[in-house]
Design goal:
The protein is α+β, with helices and mostly antiparallel strands. Helix content is 18%, strand content 20%. Strand 21 (505-506) and strand 22 (512-513) form a beta hairpin. Helix 3 packs antiparallel against helix 4, helix 3 (95-111) runs parallel beside helix 6 and helix 4 packs across helix 8.
């Protein structure tokens, strides 16, 4: 069977019926959904803007399967040897696919417990997007046996997203297509991709990678998916369609009532798609255009499209900054009017490893004449070899510009990697030059060291010191944890050279060493040195401890022979008198 969605189609009549049922469910059963004054379905609370660029969704608002779940879920699961009913077949999820969903949800419970991501939500989205990887047609590692591709997003019946990956993921160097079991478009996968099976790759065609990426995508704004409003927002951010929202919610409820594992490759294949009802060709070609209403022709000009930008870079990373062409009679969106991005007064970005940057990145969207543009989605992406993230825990953030045209990124959080990295600001859905910001992470440091006790450190020649040296490090009065330190037995206070006699430490082989490196304070800023020993040299010696950041402490050590009490002198025996005393 061919890999592309277009081969899994049914008549438009069936799809129309499904769409009507979805609409009825949306009006009568879906939580958090009401209608506005015009009778349109809306979700209560904040949700993605209807005019938000499709490139900012996971799927680029690509078509999806509209098959509805059976009215009843089998619970318990059918036993071996029994006849499998249609409901039981729909409730079954291929083993590898089910394992991927559960592992992704478990990972999110550990990394983002406040998100409360249920694995059933991943299963619901996976069902709607690809029919559970087309019935579980995956290999042992979770990679689909053939690529699952959505239609060209060429603006003809679908969103208009020019190529962003040079065809690396979707094989199309003109336009993007949704890829894999969770249907990520390449530009979204570029920042959302994850390695879910630990093979060192981020492959949208692998169900473990795709499921973990989908989980992080749904949890990226600090949403609590146990709250109906946040759940709706997360689903709408995946594909900005009310019908899509209600359909995913139906499958979520269905899987929560009961499901079971079935062998890979035996899952039920979906039949109806959201674009079937309008007669669109899911995989249009340059010589066979498709339109949601009528075939393109001399009297029906095709919708203008944005040319593919050279190099296949991410939207907003380069190319022409001229306004995006719009069809006659339509009003340009704010995004269409953006000519460039300007730095909005971002100060120097520096933070210590493990800390939070005090300064935040600000960018302003402007027209060609320098006028600020509000309600434009600016994407901030951390690039380079770094473990730094935004305060959300992600390397990506999307922010709408305010009335002054300014978008302020979430606070940056430094990891343990030191050095410079880059944050790039781009305009979602526009091919204007990106704006780069350089951030620097310095090593952890301390500015003060003190001993935790004032006990004297003494030892006899050839013995060992009873007390260990323990110090506490602070930086600007706060605990300085994980700070690198060295300890050296020095020659003199004004001579930091290593001493060749007196006290010493022992290495793993029991040999004397007088310099220790690679030390680090613990999470309380404490550092306890190994036991000290003494050779036969007596005197006063110095131990110097130094940390990154310049904190030093010199500790005095004394080696002296044990003091002994003088032996009493024997007294002379008194002479006996010649005569007894009176």
């Amino acid at each position: 069977m061919a890999a592309e969605f277009g081969r899994l189609r049914k008549g438009a009549v069936n799809t129309t019926v499904a769409a009507v049922v979805v609409a009825a469910l949306a009006a009568s059963q879906a939580p958090g959904v009401t209608t506005d004054g015009a009778g349109r379905k809306v979700t209560t609370g904040t949700q993605p803007s209807p005019d938000a660029p499709a490139a900012d969704s996971a799927t680029g608002n690509s078509p999806y399967y509209t098959d509805l779940p059976p009215l009843k879920s089998p619970n318990p699961a059918p036993s071996a040897g029994t006849t499998v009913t249609p409901a039981a077949g729909e409730a079954g999820i291929p083993a590898t696919v089910l394992d991927a969903y559960k592992k992704a949800a478990a990972s999110l419970r550990a990394s983002k417990p406040g998100c409360n991501l249920p694995w059933e939500l991943l299963a619901a989205i996976g069902k709607v997007e690809s029919g559970q990887a087309r019935g579980g047609r995956v290999d042992a590692n979770g990679t689909t046996l053939s690529k699952i591709l959505g239609p060209q997003l060429n603006g003809v019946g679908f969103a208009n997203i020019s190529d962003t990956d040079d065809g690396a993921y979707d094989g199309d160097s003109r336009y993007d297509r949704a890829v894999g079991p969770m249907q990520f478009i390449p530009s979204t996968w570029a920042w959302a991709g994850r390695d879910g099976n630990g093979d060192g790759r981020k492959d949208p065609n692998n169900v473990y990678d795709a499921a973990l990426a989908a989980g992080h995508y749904l949890c990226r704004f600090g949403w609590n998916l146990a709250e109906p409003g946040d759940l709706d927002r997360a689903i709408l951010s995946y594909n900005n369609s009310q019908d899509y929202l209600q359909l995913v919610r139906r499958w979520l409820d269905y899987y929560r009532k009961g499901t079971h594992e079935i062998p890979d490759g035996t899952g039920t294949l979906p039949t109806d798609r959201s674009d079937d009802a309008v007669g669109a060709n899911p995989t249009p070609s340059p010589t066979q255009p498709a339109s949601p209403s009528a075939p393109a022709g001399p009297s029906s000009p095709a919708k203008p499209t944005t040319p593919a930008k050279p190099g296949g870079s991410e939207p907003g990373d380069g190319g022409s900054g001229s306004p995006k062409p719009t069809p006659p009679g339509t009003t340009p969106t704010p995004t269409d009017t953006v000519d460039h991005l300007e730095d909005a007064g971002t100060a120097k970005l520096t933070a210590m490893a493990g800390g939070t940057f005090t300064e935040r990145i600000s960018a302003r969207a402007e027209t060609e004449s320098g006028k600020a543009v509000a309600k434009v989605r600016v994407r901030f992406t951390i690039t380079g070899d770094t473990d730094a993230t935004f305060s959300t825990g992600e390397k990506y953030a999307a922010v709408l510009t305010d009335s002054t045209g300014k978008a302020v990124a979430p606070a940056l959080r430094a990891g343990e990697d030191t050095g410079e990295f880059t944050v790039r600001a781009t305009v979602g859905g526009r091919t204007v030059a990106g704006l780069d910001y350089t951030a620097t992470v310095t090593e952890r440091a301390a500015d003060t060291l003190v001993r935790t006790t004032d006990a004297a450190l003494t030892c006899v020649p050839g013995g060992e010191f009873a007390e260990r040296v323990e110090v506490k490090a602070t930086y600007k009065g706060a605990v300085a944890d994980k700070v690198a330190a060295t300890a050296t037995l020095i020659t003199a206070a004004d001579d930091p050279a290593e001493n060749d006699k007196g006290p010493y430490f022992k290495d793993a082989d029991g040999k004397p060493v007088r310099t220790l490196t690679g030390l680090k304070t613990d999470d309380k800023g404490l550092l306890e040195l190994p036991k000290l020993y003494a050779d036969d040299t007596t005197g006063t010696f110095l131990l110097r401890i130094a940390t990154a950041g310049g904190a030093t402490l010199t500790v005095e050590l004394k080696v002296a022979a044990a003091e002994t009490s003088p032996e009493p002198t024997p007294s002379e025996e008194p002479e006996e008198s010649a005569s007894p005393s009176a």
